[in-house]
Design brief:
The chain is an all-alpha fold and 151 residues long. Helices cover 68% and strands 0% of the residues. It has six helices and no strands. The longest helix is centred in the middle third of the chain and has 31 residues. It is elongated.
């Protein structure tokens, strides 16, 4: 059965909503947004040292590179994947979710790296900030070994 363009959009939206299991009341992880337009705000708010700032910039650049690869895959997927049947749309939605999950994992990894080099005062300020915006802080054990966490 051939689907019209409008039906494809409606079905694709329904599939994404089902896959992502959107729950308005669920709290999200408190991500800092490293590598984006907020780096200077992060530096100012947490009063990062020069060493912390350098690491923030390096890790942000690394994350942006990794996520750019995923963004290119997403664009290709949306441009080239068959969209004729419900099964095509479902398959595309699962592939899209996988890429988006990988991008979020990259963001969490970079945040965890930075949080791992925070002082106790900086980390406490992060937890207070997260609580203030009703987000779940990322727990970082001070024995965190970033090499074990690399994807």
């Amino acid at each position: 059965m051939k689907l019209s363009y409008n039906h494809k959009i409606i079905l694709f939206s329904a599939i994404l909503n089902g896959i992502f299991n959107i729950n308005i009341s669920a709290q999200e992880t408190c991500l800092l947004g490293i590598g984006g337009k907020d780096d200077e705000a992060i530096i100012d708010f947490f009063k990062l040292t020069d060493t912390q700032q350098e690491k923030l910039r390096n890790w942000g650049a690394e994350m942006n590179y990794r996520n750019e690869v995923h963004q290119n895959k997403l664009k290709s997927l949306l441009r080239n994947h068959p969209k004729e049947t419900l099964e095509d749309l479902r398959t595309m939605a699962y592939k899209q979710k996988s890429l988006l999950d990988s991008m979020e994992a990259n963001m969490r990894l970079v945040d965890k790296r930075l949080l791992g080099i925070f002082t106790v005062e900086q980390y406490n300020a992060y937890v207070l900030l997260c609580n203030g915006v009703q987000r779940i802080p990322i727990y970082v054990d001070k024995s965190f070994n970033e090499k074990k966490q690399r994807p």
